[in-house]
Amino acid sequence: MKLRSSHNTSLDASLVISPKGLTLYHFTFEKGKRIECTGPCLKFWPPLLIKKGAKPTAGPGLNARKLGVIRRPDGRYQVTYYGFALYTFGSDRRRGDVKGEGVEGAWWAVGASGKLVKQPTTAR
């Protein structure tokens, strides 16, 4: 699985994107190896999953040494970047969509730099 970076004009930042080109987010209630997005949360925030034993790879603009994998409570494996568990947002349909940015004041796009991109958002 190869992750890439892409400059997002609406956030004016280089973001980590999935192999399908979708923006990747992190849930700030998750700290360390603790996964909080389970059950109904997964309907809206699908985790970026990888097969057991597989290694994610980095495209240009990403730090390959900062990619990793974490085991979820359900036993599946999720990709991480700089320790952030990565998710897509169910309402993002096309490359460049960032509809999950700032949702509930807890979901933020992950920047290629390894920092969360926190842009002021309107109420959703």
Q: How many DSSP E strands?
A: 10
Helix and strand element order: EEEHEEEEEEE
Coarse structural class: mainly beta
Radius of gyration over C-alpha positions, nearest whole angstrom: 13 Å
What is the domain total for the residues? 1
Helix content: under 10%
Shape: globular
Tally of contiguous helical segments: 1
Strand-residue proportion: 25-35%
Q: What is the CA-CA span between the terminal residues?
A: 32 Å
**Mean pLDDT level:** 94
**Uncertain residue ranges:** none
Biggest sheet statistics: 4 strands, antiparallel
Task: Fill in the keyword field for this structure.
single chain, 124 residues, mainly beta, four-stranded antiparallel beta sheet, three-stranded mixed beta sheet, 1 helix, globular
Can you walk through the features of this model?
Helices cover 3% and strands 30% of the residues. It is mainly beta and 124 residues long. It has one domain (2-117). Strands 4, 6, 7 and 8 form a 4-stranded antiparallel beta sheet that branches. It has a 3-stranded mixed beta sheet with strand order 2-1-5, with no helix packed on it. The longest helix is centred in the middle third of the chain and has 4 residues, at 41-44. The protein is globular, with a radius of gyration of 13 Å. The mean pLDDT is 94.
Write the layout of secondary structure elements.
Blueprint: E1 2-8, E2 13-17, E3 25-27, H1 41-44, E4 49-50, E5 57-58, E6 67-71, E7 77-81, E8 84-85, E9 107-110, E10 116-117
Parallel strand pairs: 1-5
Antiparallel strand pairs: 1-2, 3-9, 4-7, 6-7, 7-8, 9-10
Task: Give a concise summary.
The protein is mainly beta.
